[in-house]
Design goal:
By secondary structure, the protein is an alpha+beta fold. The chain is 35% helix and 28% strand. It has 12 helices and 19 strands. Strands 11-12-17-13-16-15 form a 6-stranded mixed barrel. The protein has a 5-stranded mixed beta sheet with strand order 1-6-3-5-4, with helices on both faces. Strand 15 and strand 16 form a beta hairpin. It is globular and about 70 Å long. Mean pLDDT is 79; it is low at 150-154 and 213-225.
Length: 369
């Protein structure tokens, strides 16, 4: 990464509760605001204002988990003029208001024996995690923060859901703000803690949030199964989708061992790679007599590239033949919107081959392995 941008990123991190005008940041980088903003976006993928907003939300999130100050004081410290503006920004990023998250964390902490150790709170969004994934995420969070445990606590995992008509509450359920059900999951914690044999630990509290997320589609008396869990049993793998402000969905795709960003377009007849990026993916191409239509361009020459390895999540296709066309008409439109360019488009051929199911509510693409 550019050294000037790295310096500014470090400055933002350590001064996130201070005014950070573009003019001042660009002056620190010895650039004009225009050139600094352009370089910053190229290096980080975000506009300066967007990056600062995200950093403020991450700082607020950690502060709420620590529980050291009121939400209003936190909002003011981070430069927000009122609670409502801060709350909207926070909920947009985390799907839950800062006040609700604070109440949930406080209630959960009150229900467990904290012992003499340091407090560590982990919050995971719960909509398609299985036990192994939860254990992995907990272990990674602890490792990232250099946390070492000193004993095996119990009842330290709580499933938090919005109160709804499915009546999931039971005798071990606590109501929070008359809006959420919080249920202890001691068995899950016991299983996870036994797996994390390398961790010695202190007090760790894990909250599995299912707030603002679509309800499960299948359910038994003992276990609530969501679409991902159901499809996992059918041999599917789930891939995370992301959305541009333009509304286009995109995902990470690997071709010949190289990662790229591809639009998901179920209306496109075939998957295509941008002509300018075929070398990036180590692809060899041959000219065809065909012409491309649709996707904003017509009569565009098509090249064909055979014997490629295509991987999406845990789904893969060997000896895949991809189409290669010039995608300037797509990327020029994205550039005008200030969006990052794409390497290609995943079309109906790959989706059909993988018997794809798109879960728009949870932004997941399911492909059959």
């Amino acid at each position: 990464m550019n050294e000037s941008v790295t310096t500014i990123l470090d400055y933002i991190e350590h001064n996130i509760d201070k005014p950070l005008p573009l003019k001042s940041l660009s002056a620190m980088a010895c650039m004009s605001p225009f050139h600094f903003h352009r370089l910053f976006k190229k290096e980080t993928g975000m506009a300066v204002k967007q990056f600062i907003e995200q950093s403020k939300m991450e700082k607020a999130y950690q502060s709420i988990l620590a529980g050291n100050e009121s939400i209003l004081d936190l909002a003011i410290r981070l430069g927000y003029n009122d609670y409502e503006t801060f709350s909207r920004a926070f909920k947009k990023r985390y799907t839950i208001s800062p006040g609700d998250l604070k109440s949930i964390v406080k209630q959960a902490c009150a229900q467990v024996n904290q012992g003499n150790g340091e407090k560590k709170v982990i919050v995971l969004t719960h909509h398609n995690f299985n036990e192994a994934e939860i254990a992995e995420k907990i272990a990674k969070s602890l490792s990232d923060d250099n946390v070492q445990l000193v004993g095996k606590a119990t009842n330290n995992i709580f499933l938090v859901t919005e109160q709804c008509e499915d009546k999931m509450a039971n005798q071990s359920t606590t109501k929070v703000k008359n809006k959420f059900n919080m249920t202890s999951e001691p068995t899950l914690w016991k299983n996870i803690s036994e797996r994390l044999t390398k961790i010695k630990a202190l007090f760790v509290l894990v909250l599995l949030l299912s707030v603002g997320i679509s309800r499960s589609l299948a359910q038994t008396n003992d276990q609530k199964k969501d679409l991902t869990h159901f499809l996992d049993q059918k041999g599917y793998t789930a891939v995370t989708l992301q959305k541009y402000v333009s509304g286009h969905l995109y995902l990470e795709v690997m071709i010949n061992g190289v990662k790229g960003r591809f639009i998901l377009d179920s209306g496109a007849g075939a998957t295509v790679v941008d002509e300018k990026r075929k070398d990036k993916f180590n692809m060899t191409a041959e000219q065809t007599d065909e012409k491309a239509t649709g996707a904003g361009g017509n009569g565009i020459a098509i090249q064909s590239s055979a014997n490629n390895k295509l991987i999406i999540g845990h789904y893969s296709i060997d000896h895949y033949t991809a189409m290669i066309i010039n995608l300037d008409h797509v990327n020029n439109a994205f550039k005008q919107l200030g969006l990052e360019e794409v390497d290609g488009v995943i079309g109906a051929d790959v989706l059909t081959s993988g018997q794809a199911i798109i879960d728009y509510a949870n932004m997941l693409l399911h492909l059959k392995k």
